[in-house]
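Before going further, learn to read the protein records used in this course. A complete example follows; check for yourself that the lines match position by position.
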Amino acid sequence: MRLSTLVLGFLVSVAGAVGFVAYRKATEEHRVWRALLALEGGDLHSQSAGRALFDRAVARLPRPDPRVQGPSPWRVVRLGGHVLLIEADILVAVPDTFDLVVHAFGEEGNHLSSASFSGGWRIVVNGAQAAGVAELRAPLLRLDSFPESNGRDVARQYYAVVRDRLVLVRLEDSEGRALENHYAAPNHTIGPRPPERTSQEWEEALESNDPVSILEVLVWLGGGHAPAFTDPDPRIHRESRAEADLVHAVRTSLPVRARVAELESSPNAWVRDAALLAAKALPK
């Protein structure tokens, strides 16, 4: 009986010690997270203490693309109920692609998703902030950018978080005009990869009443894509045949063509701009 009491006491002590360690760890992680949120709006490239906090927050996350090693802690942006931790290249020479990694978290620090992508070919991304747009019912991430050595005139890139996933909804030039994305050459593609969907799923997404979901489809549909039914030259970095065939299938769908024509007259200016670009890309 006495032995049992001693064992029980030992187990209680161990459980208490484990619980105390877990409590201290959770408290420390909470402290780090709150300190990181206080750095919103600052450029962490020049803040060693801020970079250290950022690194602790993302240390256990898998790199979304193991080939992307260059970006370093850059910005903290709060977007509605999400917190975006953004890593970006530090420009030391003329860039080829400008690499970014965006980690989406909940307000309490729970990791939701990560995306690695390019901000453009020979385009420098030099600003990031939350933006509200009257046409959309969602907060947006706006990345400011400028061309370097024959890069495209891409001045603003707008992204939304849809079901915890970062999506591109609009590119603009320095005059505020909507631009198409380039998918045929992956090194010129801006933003995260489109989601894996069948042609039917893309068609259904375009029928949504949510402007953000509609814009995601129209941006992909109206972008520049490789020719369908043509195998890529292995010497050239090009969109895959499967991807090119898929966009062709969606573009030639009669319901999709009818929906795009309808959206060309949308009262929403961004949807209308994106639909006009998509209409130009549809096969005649």
Summary: Confidence is low (pLDDT under 50) at residues 20-25. The first helix runs from residue 2 to 37. The two ends are 89 Å apart (CA to CA). Helices lie at 2-37, 48-58, 199-206, 211-221, 241-251, 254-263, 269-281.
